[in-house]
Amino acid sequence: MGVRGYEHCSVLSSVLLVDFVPRVIIKSIAASYKSLDFDSKQVFLLTLARDLHVDAPTVQQTLSSCAASISTVTQSDTLLFRQLLSQLDGGMLFLVHLRADLRQVLGKTSNSKDVVVLRALDQHLQSFLASWFSVGFLRLERVTYEQSPGALLEKIIRYEAVHPVGTIIELKRRLGRGRRCFAFFHPSVPDEPLVFVHVALVPRLADSMTYIKEATEQLADEHEANAAIFYSISSTQPGLQGVDLGNFLIKQVAKRLQEDLPNISVYSTLSPIPGFTAWLHLT
Description:
Blueprint: H1 3-16, H2 23-34, H3 38-52, H4 56-65, H5 69-74, H6 76-87, H7 91-107, H8 112-132, E1 139-142, H9 150-159, H10 168-174, E2 179-185, E3 195-202, H11 209-218, E4 227-235, H12 245-260, E5 266-269, H13 276-282
Parallel strand pairs: 4-5
Antiparallel strand pairs: 1-2, 2-3, 3-4
């Protein structure tokens, strides 16, 4: 990337740090960012991270001179995130994708000083996203072959990370009798399943996919099942890594199943989830 490219990225970054940025400029910056290649995004994010970063001596000096100023110094990133969120259509998803890019840049950065400022920006952005993607804002929805939009079914196939879905017929089987699929959605990105889980309803505790496949195929009535096995959970947004959606999802699904199928007395996962057993004993 040439000198103009670096200057362009620096200008984009510096404009975002103004206390108020008009909507039209926010949209222009977002569009420009999306068109950048990886190297240019790396320059943009590093410039932004450096401009937002406040080192310990600066914080101490500001705190000593004027306590009120510390809020302005340390909350620049939050102001930036809120401006992007409020003035940009699809601003939430833009922030999620921005953090995904940021984490990719972090993984390819070796300079220790750059790592420090990038990691600080990543932590602040993660905290900001976690506050917006808390369980109170999320909508639990069951995914079915008959009623869910085709676009959603395609995303379930594409994002499945544990047991790949080869064909639409395979997906139909996974959404059929003896199976459940639930996903979390957020009002700001209503068409994107943020995380989804597949559940098998079986007669007893399962320890393999082979048993799950055979037991669900032979199940004549779901009310005969005694166990719900969470056998696959997939997160669709790398930018939400560290935001604990999966744990919340499983607990919400367990509550839903308790209401819909009171015959289910055993809840388990094929792989351990920290705190899941203790939570079940409390509910």
